[in-house]
């Protein structure tokens, strides 16, 4: 498997940036994260995501969506809402969410 960023898409579209600091109590986190990846991929208008974690633990996930309705569909997903609730109760010391409209996008890949 090669590592690649999400390819550029035709703007406009949206980026949802989720930045988090974990509590250090990850029981159930991995399984839930995998389930969220499966579920979000089913959302019409979902374009992809990228995720990284610093050695100190700060996590950043950026999800890309075609439009605001796609984001709203993801927000209304009941399993996603349950995971958010559990995240606030168990997994995160803190987090932030930023939603941005992408007006320019391009990519590069070495041949």
In short:
By secondary structure, the protein is an alpha+beta fold. It has helices at residues 29-41, 68-76, 78-91, and strands at 13-22, 46-53, 59-65, 92-102. The radius of gyration is 15 Å and the shape is globular.
Keywords:
single chain, 111 residues, alpha+beta, Alpha-Beta Plaits, four-stranded antiparallel sheet, 3 helices, 4 strands, globular, Dimeric_a/b-barrel, monooxygenase, monooxygenase activity, ABM_dom, oxidoreductase
SSE blueprint and pairings:
Layout: E1 13-22, H1 29-41, E2 46-53, E3 59-65, H2 68-76, H3 78-91, E4 92-102
Antiparallel strand pairs: 1-3, 1-4, 2-3
What does this structure look like?
- By secondary structure, this protein is an alpha+beta fold.
- Helix content is 32%, strand content 32%.
- The chain is built from 3 helices and 4 strands, in the order βαββααβ.
- The chain has a 4-stranded antiparallel sheet with strand order 2-3-1-4.
